[in-house]
Write a structure and sequence with these properties.
The complex is a heterodimer. By secondary structure, chain A is α+β, with helices and mostly antiparallel strands. Chain A has three helices and nine strands. Chain A has a nine-stranded mixed beta barrel. The relative contact order of chain A is 0.17. By secondary structure, chain B is α+β, with helices and mostly antiparallel strands. The chains are: A alpha+beta, B alpha+beta. At the A-B interface, helix 1, helix 2 and strand 9 of A face helix 1, strand 3, helix 2 and strand 5 of B.
């Protein structure tokens, strides 16, 4: 068992997965330019988060390879290549699962260790929830009084938060989808979003992905912590698959200088086989 | 709270993080090795989910090789100073890449310079 410090560093490396300049000819990134401040309020007085957001320490900021691929991690050797290390080999822990999810997950760990884990994402299936909130290429928020839409540039996924609905559809009418059914309400300046109906085959992220049941509920609390900074506190509640609920947070940074761009994954997915494994023909 | 604080941190990283900054694993490339390839651009595929640079190389044994270099998405490359016109067929380039594990003429691009030795593209903005 590694020390806590080492384990956090390694986990961070896995997330950042990235890059310092691989060539001395490449200049350091200049400070982020913001061409305009984030507008603080909508006419109805609600916080205004419309616009493009990226990760304060995430992909766009951390990615330094001039061609956009990889390089040594900022955090040292641990991060490099860690993106491809099966989870079973990572010094991380996962929430305690109940049977049969625990056994299914253990089987996936074995597949990952053997290099035979299918990768539906590489087949261009959507990320869904909560993966799209990882926003590795940034995300766009559009607010109207009745709908708040969040679009991830990566995989071009959009979720809609229905602000004018108080309840979810009845169980026999609830369609299970990649992003689920989300209803939202304002508690002061905090946006509370309640999501159910996420397909059970949409993993919670990671390799292999953490499983969940179709009963999973996600409660998010979005709040602004500083000008141009947004935090999403995400609580996962799935008593069928997990012993206890848990909460994660994700932070975003407003980028007036960026716009969401098109990402059609199937345009030229040229080196992925039918299992979602990268190969060369 | 039964779960130690540090475990929660780890879970956060595992669950929300996309484990790679692209849509598939790069395990097909040997990230412990680098190759430097100089040749002539035959095609620049400015496409999602990944851009590709095709480079024709005359090997030391006289063999003509066509190398495929995988890049990140155009949307991200644009933010790094690339455009669809950054390279064009006929350009001489030198590419540093992690080679494919299976020995095919393919690599994960790390950097590329033009005929004058200038880096193409830059850091993300």
């Amino acid at each position: 068992m590694r020390s806590t410090h080492a384990f956090v560093l390694c986990a961070l490396g896995a997330v950042l997965s990235v890059s310092v300049p691989v060539s001395s000819q490449i200049a350091q990134a200049p400070a982020v330019k913001r061409s305009a401040p984030q507008p603080a309020r909508l006419p109805d007085g609600k916080p205004n988060w419309t616009g493009f957001w990226d990760l304060p320490n995430g992909f766009l900021e951390a990615y330094r390879g001039p061609a956009g691929i990889s390089g040594p991690s900022r955090g040292g050797g641990e991060g490099r290549g860690a993106v491809n290390v099966p989870l079973a080999q990572r010094p991380t822990r996962v929430p305690e699962m109940k049977s049969p999810y625990k056994e299914r997950y253990e089987a996936l760990l074995k597949q990952a260790a053997a290099g035979t884990l299918p990768d539906p994402g590489a087949l261009c299936l959507p990320q869904g929830m909560p993966g799209m909130m990882g926003a590795i290429y940034g995300m766009e928020i559009l607010q109207t009084p009745k709908i708040i839409a969040i679009s991830s540039e990566f995989k071009a996924g959009t979720r809609r938060i229905w602000m004018d609905e108080k309840t979810h559809p009845a169980a026999d009418e609830l369609e299970e989808t990649f992003v689920g059914h989300s209803i939202g309400r304002w508690e002061g300046d905090v946006l509370v979003v309640d999501t159910v109906g996420i397909r059970a085959d949409v993993g919670l992220g990671g390799r292999p992905p953490l499983p969940h049941s179709s009963k999973m509920r996600i409660i998010e609390r979005f709040r602004q912590t500083a000008p141009g900074m947004l935090v999403d506190e995400i609580t996962f509640d799935d008593s069928e698959a997990y012993v206890a609920s848990w909460t994660e947070t994700r932070s975003y940074r407003y980028r007036a200088d960026l716009k969401l761009q098109e990402f059609v994954c199937l345009e030229n997915n040229r080196n992925v086989d039918e299992r979602g494994v990268a190969t060369f023909k | 709270m039964r779960t130690p604080h540090m475990v929660i941190v780890a879970v956060a990283l595992v669950t929300l993080a996309i484990p790679v900054a692209a849509h598939h694993s790069f395990a097909a490339f040997d990230q412990s090795r680098q190759v430097t390839i100089k040749g002539e651009v035959t095609e620049f595929q400015w496409t999602n989910p990944h851009a590709w640079l095709q480079v024709k190389v005359k090997a030391a044994n006289g063999e003509d090789q066509e190398w495929s270099f995988e890049m990140i998405s155009p949307s991200v490359l644009r933010r790094m100073g690339w455009t669809k016109a950054s390279v064009k067929p006929g350009d001489t380039v030198t590419v540093v890449a992690n080679p494919a594990r299976d020995g095919k003429y393919a690599g994960l691009m790390l950097s590329v310079t033009d005929a004058a030795g200038r880096a193409i593209g830059g850091p993300a903005q």
